[in-house]
# Entry
Amino acid sequence: MHRLLAHVLSFAILITAAGFAQEVRAAVASEIPGTPLLGRSVVGSVGGATIDEVYAVNVPSGSVLIATVQGEFGAELGVYLFEPDATSILTAAPITSSARPGGTQSISTAVQLGGTYYVDINGRNLDRAYEYTLSLAIARDTTPPTFTSVSMPARARSGSVCAAVTARDVTSGVRDVRVRESSSGAAAAWLPYTGPGKYCTTASAGSGARGFDVTIRNGVGLAAAPRSFSVIIDDDAPVLSGSTPSQGGVLYEPRGSITWSFNEPVRLAGAVSDNIYVVSQAGARLAGVGQLLGDGTRVRWTPLVGLPAGSILLAAITGVRDQAGNETVPIESLEILRKQRSSLDLARIRSGSRWSWFRYTTTRNLIGRDVLMETYTNGAWQISAVITTSGVNGTFRVERSSGAAIRLRWAGDERVDGATSRRVGLGG
# Structure
């Protein structure tokens, strides 16, 4: 709304012709430098022909100013606060204002530098002037703000070192937060305090331990004593050191686990199970549970239901980050076979002048299988016979002149993993 320069009457004493004292209104300025406000409240009226009433208020340094306007019923009012160097309410930008619908308005601000401030009461009613009461409260703030809580991580990347800050100041409020690398002596900007949350800075390049401090400042510029922290700057991504099973390896148990190992403690970008994706050879995702193990250098996935022998799994892990937030390069998916474990054992039970007799022991999943007998001759193993197992135990004989030693070997198939017995001599 365009402001019109106008004057209205303030309270004064007028002696009438009849000799009686009558309360009338003296002039109140409608522009800066305003009318000095000596007390903490005043009654006036704006609206109609009178658009603005401006008061000059002396505010000490380090204070909080609160101005409240209460208008009579039907009033449409606004209140605006201007700083000491303002020369006109028509051209200067207010420090703060309140112009909600209705006649009740309130503003507050923290004042670092004292001086004469200007409070403008603006009337939006066109029909007539409406009465209002302006009340002021000025409170000195002599105490700095306080930390409710403040923390920093043990490790962080140099590009984003953050402090979690919650702070309070009951008088002038918390205005700013500063997170600074104290060990480098570099300057750091004050950040507006917007409530409990993270406030960040950057660190100088290079990995290693650094010192940081966190400071808060209230509305009148008083700062709390800084809180100090030691943070390890880490810009190196974690590295996969191995997996169990390894690429092309075998899971022997129906609910056997897959484990990835890293060179430093890690975390995952989301839920552990969401960052591990395991599918069958048919392309169906397999349900499982993911866990971070021990000191955080290992991540394990375990299926919820048993996997049948002969299954082929494809396992992928993503979103692996270290405690500083560095993420690994893409990790190759693992192809893993689910097989039954098998075993073969061999013992010589007696030797004759021409023949030696042997007993084998095997697992039940090799009963009825063709097992290779290999003879060690001229420094190499050579297939010399095929033995069909008839039970978990069996015997056979070998001519002593056929070589120096023998062993049994099952090459394995898609369901049962391979096995090799120990080497046994043919006898002297």
User: Anything to note?
Assistant: The chain has four domains: 8-140, 146-233, 240-338, 344-425. The chain has a mean pLDDT of 90. The domain at 146-233 is CATH 2.60.40.10 (Immunoglobulin-like). The CA atoms of residues 316 and 332 lie 7 Å apart.
